[in-house]
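Bump. Still looking for HlyD family efflux transporter periplasmic adaptor subunit structure tokens.
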Amino acid sequence: MLRKVILSVLGVALIVGAFFFAKYLVDNKNKPKPVIPKVVKTVLVDTVENTTVPIVISANGNLTAKQRVELYSEVQGIFKTGSKLFKPGQKFNKGESLIRLDASEYYASVQSAKSNLYNSIAAIMPDLRLDFPDVFPKWQSYLNGFDLNKSTPKLPEISNEKENYFITGRGIVSSYYNVKNLEQRLTKYRITAPFTGILTEALVTEGTLVRNGQKLGEFINPSVYEMEVAISKSFADILKEGESVSLTSLDNTKIYNGKVSRVNGSIDATTQTITVYIEVKHDDLKEGMYLEANLNAEKVENAIEIDRNLLLDSQEIYVVRDSLLDVIPVKPAHFSNESVVLKDIPNGTIILRKPVPGAYAGMHVKAAKNNTTTNDSIQ
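Sorry for the wait, here they are.
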């Protein structure tokens, strides 16, 4: 009996519970769905105004002295101490002695050869007086002006064939050129500065034995430098000598003005580039400095320059039309590391100034009224 009562109570409770659950479902069926807010990105835009855009080619390289001399010895001797030390950083004026080698022994042989020449000419003077009285005065004058302590003067000009045979037959001409050869070699014991400059490398010191063919050091002119850069072959017919170049240091703190001094006439077959030499002058510059050059190659008419990241792989860019993004095809005229030059985009076209993450054609956007960063606004 008790069991039937319990089952009846449970049945009634189940029916009541089912009634209230059904009522809850009916009440919530007509409840409106939640409205999902629409996200509109705020973007930075620019209005196209076509102008003439100069194409600037960026290149970099190290400075080298335009005037550089590698010093080598052509003779052998002891390095003698001079008025200035032969050390890196030492300055020399044009014509000053860079290096002097002991030439006392060789100098004696030169003087001996000059004396023999003098004696040979003196020995033929009696014959000249008798057989060639008309040429005797000029040879007498030559002997009077002959000074063993000075460079050997040029022989008198031979006026006729008989005189030529006579002078040549006595060995005068061969002796003269032998002396001049020795004198020329004597000058190699002293190396002078070909221009005002500075010694950048010294491989020998005073008192050491210098051998024939030995490298002694390097001497440069620190007032004029050149930088060698490699430019794409597409600019081979555009770059010309005399073009102005802006050079900047690594820290971008200083700008130097240079010019294109030379353009190589051949193209590197491996890299397909052409070598350009840029000349620059400034007191702050040193050999070996690393600089970046900006060369004005050409000018593109009816074009604009934008961030390279704004150009899509399909050669298109995003534009804004009625608060929607769209794409238009473009004609790239020049690429640089950070920008691209585009031609023939209609004036007044509204384009993006900065890339928009996740952008697609048909995307709703809002043009920013200032240069604030891109953000999301909820409408």
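The longest helix spans residues 2-29.

Edit: fixed formatting.
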